[in-house]
Design brief:
This protein is α+β, with helices and mostly antiparallel strands. 15% of the residues lie in helices and 30% in strands. It has two helices and four strands; from the N terminus they run βαββαβ. The strands form two sheets. Strands 1-4 form a two-stranded antiparallel ribbon. Strands 2-3 form a two-stranded antiparallel sheet.
Length: 67
């Protein structure tokens, strides 16, 4: 199982990570960062295979994947 870390202050809630995750691990949460964006959060971590697609698609480099 991989670990997903999201820098909430860098996330602008674009949703690319959610859209392109093949295992539906991420969601746009309800918590808001200091810039007023609801940021992405892991929802289903046990399904993560560490493919890094979310990190590759993130335009703000807000996601790190650790295997």
């Amino acid at each position: 199982m991989a670990r997903v870390e999201i820098r909430s202050e860098s996330c602008k809630s674009c949703g690319y990570c959610v859209k392109f995750c093949p295992k539906e691990v991420l969601v746009i949460g309800t918590r808001v960062n200091s810039k007023g964006y609801e940021y992405a959060e892991p929802q289903n971590m046990e399904a993560c295979v560490g493919c890094r697609m979310c990190a590759v698609m993130c335009p703000d480099a807000a996601i790190e994947i650790y295997k």
